[in-house]
Amino acid sequence: MNALYDAKKGRYHYQKGFNINAIVTTIIAGVICLIGNFIPMLKPLYDMSWFVGIITAFILYTLLELRQSKRTLFAKSPTLNEENS
User: Per the confidence metrics, is the pTM higher than 0.70?
Assistant: First the structure.
């Protein structure tokens, strides 16, 4: 619970207030969805862009978050003391 409110080092602290994983995921999934509009061979991706976008975004965001959580998994977790209990 402390990680939720730790403004500097908590698990939910984002880079300057931006969730970079979410931004990267949105851009990549959007490009994959729209690429079929410009490349005729990939038109089926564009025709089903809603499904392609949701599935791509889910998989990509999950992978990016897992990669980030592995880096912080072994970081020393804060301990409760009298001040923050």
Answer: no
